[in-house]
Specification:
- The complex is a heterodimer of chains A (about 260) and B (about 170).
- In chain A, helix 1 packs across helix 11.
- Chain A has twelve helices and eight strands.
- With about 260 residues, chain A is α/β, with parallel strands linked by helices.
- Chain A has an eight-stranded mixed beta sheet, with helices on both faces.
- Helix content of chain B is about 0%, strand content about 35%.
- Chain B has a six-stranded mixed beta sheet with strand order 1-12-11-9-7-5, with no helix packed on it. Chain B has a six-stranded mixed beta sheet with strand order 4-6-8-10-13-14, with no helix packed on it. In chain B, strands 2-3 form a two-stranded antiparallel ribbon.
- In chain B, strand 13 and strand 14 form a beta hairpin.
- The chains are: A alpha/beta (about 260), B mainly beta (about 170).
- At the A-B interface, helix 7 of A face loops of B.
Chain lengths: ~260, ~170
């Protein structure tokens, strides 16, 4: 029996889909059998980020409405044998699926997979309720912005109310240089307010833009700092004890490199 | 010190203590503090201003998060933080054993002697009876000690919480 984990945030644009794609791929990289479920019906993106858009035949609504069998709708990843995607429907809306149907779907999926990772839509309405209905664990993604942290706090409250205890936090798109200058909220400030366990910190990284546009998750890019952070997060989900990446040290090295290049010019 | 923004009659109305309703998201495993009897004397009588007083106290042992609201006709004690976007509305006093960053309304049924005390008092807005105050714009001072807010001479004042010198409002 696998684990059903929902990736949520409240606020849009903080990196839920990117996080889902990277954690899923990261876990597959570790040899686990993973399925990614896109519950953002009407605004499906996960297939694009995974580079699997052109393979979609059936979607989640087809499965829950009984138009096809679950196995038919699952899309196998191009890179990994044991990584699958259940895409969202694009022509329907969030009411096309009910929380009860999601619970049944998650039960079916977790019988076959080690990890069922659910990509939750932004907001706290029907789509959110569907996404968390079948989940056993939750990951809350936030960025170091006051609005994102506020929404994360709201979502943590709703998760607790839905009996999803002890959600874990991922802080995305942090810029160590700005934090150092005091222009960005630091990790401690955020943990102080949200009062939940930290699963990982992902630095701002241009590689993410490139990799999401290409449909190649950043975890597969050895040069990507964000990819490294997601690889660490995946290992932590799998139960390994991985220390937090040293953002500061890297910044120092990068800074030094830049200075050297500046001198060389 | 927070300066009063508005005093006199509030534009919103809060009914008699009995009319407090729950909008608190509570899990099934936790008892609803509004249905529970609370701690302390269940005694209602006329207070100093002719306002009905409720001496019960509820204890909330968790972080009160954005969007959550705690309404109670008596006193409210929070063992945890009150985050921005959360609201605590009490007929009596409010004590937060943690950071108070949300909105707190003490003496919501009209008791001018109610207080709001917190380990770290930095609310988005503070209301006591019919007084509404907020921190001055552009000023974000992080308190480093427990503080208490109450009405003195018609103004909401915040001072260091000194247990020995504190004369709690006479009920």
């Amino acid at each position: 029996m696998g684990e059903v984990i929902v990736v949520t945030s409240g606020k849009g644009g903080v990196g839920k889909t990117t996080t889902t794609a990277n954690i899923g791929t990261g876990l597959a990289l570790l040899g686990h059998k993973v399925v990614l479920v896109d519950t953002d019906i009407g605004l499906r993106n996960l297939d694009v980020v995974m580079g699997l858009e052109n393979r979609i035949v059936y979607d989640i609504v087809d499965v829950t409405s009984g138009s096809c069998r679950l196995k038919q709708a699952l899309i196998k990843d191009k890179r990994f044998e044991d990584l699958f995607l259940l895409p969202a429907a694009q022509t329907k809306d969030k009411t096309a699926v009910s929380p009860q149907q999601m619970v049944e779907l998650c039960q079916q999926l977790k019988a076959d997979f080690d990890y069922v990772i659910i990509d939750c839509p932004a907001g706290i309405e029907q789509g959110f309720k569907n996404a968390i209905a079948g989940a056993e664990k939750a990951i809350v993604v936030t960025t170091p912005e006051v609005a994102a942290v506020r929404d994360a706090d709201r979502v943590i409250g709703l998760l607790e109310a839905a009996e999803l205890r002890e959600p874990k936090l991922i802080i995305n798109r942090i810029r160590p240089s700005m934090v150092k200058k005091g222009d960005m909220m630091d990790i401690d400030d955020m943990i102080d307010i949200l009062a939940i366990g930290l699963l990982g910190v992902v630095p701002e990284d241009e590689h993410i833009v490139i990799s999401t546009n290409r449909g190649e998750p950043a975890v597969l890019d050895k040069a990507s700092r964000a990819g490294e952070a997601y690889r660490n997060i995946s290992r932590r989900i799998a139960g390994e004890d991985v220390p937090l990446m040293d953002l500061e040290a890297n910044e120092g090295l990068m800074g030094r490199l830049r200075r050297l290049m500046g001198l060389a010019r | 010190m927070i300066s009063p923004q508005q005093s006199g009659q509030p534009s919103w109305q809060i009914g008699a203590p009995e009319e407090f309703s729950s909008s608190l998201h509570l899990s099934k495993s936790q008892p609803d503090p509004l249905r529970s009897e609370g701690i302390g004397r269940e005694r209602k009588e006329q207070g100093p201003n002719g306002v009905a007083m409720d001496y019960r106290t509820v204890l909330i042992q968790r972080t009160v998060r954005s969007g959550q609201s705690i309404r109670y006709p008596g006193n409210v004690v929070i063992m945890g933080d009150v985050n921005p976007g959360a609201e605590i509305i009490a007929g009596g006093n409010i004590i937060v054993m943690g950071n108070l960053r949300g909105m707190a309304h003490a003496g919501a049924s009209g008791n001018q002697n109610s207080v709001v005390a917190a380990f770290r008092l930095q609310p988005t807005q503070l209301r006591i009876a019919d007084h509404i105050t907020r921190a001055p714009d552009g000023e974000s001072v992080k308190p480093d000690q427990p503080e208490i807010a109450r009405i003195q001479n018609g103004v909401v004042v915040i001072e260091r919480y000194q247990p020995n010198s504190l004369r709690f409002p006479a009920f």
